[in-house]
Amino acid sequence: LDRASLFASDLYIEFRVQMGLVDRRQVAHSTFVDLLLLAECDYLVGTFSSAFSAVALELSISRKGFVPPYISLDIPWKPFRPYQPHPGVSMQNVPRA
């Protein structure tokens, strides 16, 4: 995996994938490798406004069984909670435009 050529650009990786400038399988593989390596770290410094850093911390917690030392550079970390819709709200009840 040649990461240097994969990520050497001024364009965001998402745009380059959409434009077909990079192989999306390589990008996906590299992303999962990064995520799993981050989850193995003893300490995590990240931006929790990014789902990537938050998922890395969640994976780390699930693997280790405890919350490892971490620092957020922007917002506090909140444990992931699955979406729980309000009981009275349903997409079937949304008025049509």
- Which residues sit in consecutive blocks of at least 5 with pLDDT less than 50? none
Radius of gyration: 18 Å
Describe the sheet with the most strands: 2 strands, parallel
* Major β-sheet strand ordering: 1-2
Give the fraction of residues assigned to helices: 40-55%
Which terms would index this structure?
97 residues, mainly alpha, two-stranded parallel sheet, 2 strands, 6% strand
Give me the secondary-structure topology.
Blueprint: H1 3-7, H2 13-18, H3 24-40, E1 44-46, H4 51-64, E2 70-72
Parallel strand pairs: 1-2
Helix pairs in contact: 3-4
Describe this structure in words.
The protein has 97 residues and is mainly α. Helix content is 43%, strand content 6%. It has four helices and two strands. It has helices spanning 3-7, 13-18, 24-40, 51-64, and strands at residues 44-46, 70-72. Strands 1-2 form a two-stranded parallel sheet. It is elongated. The termini are far apart.
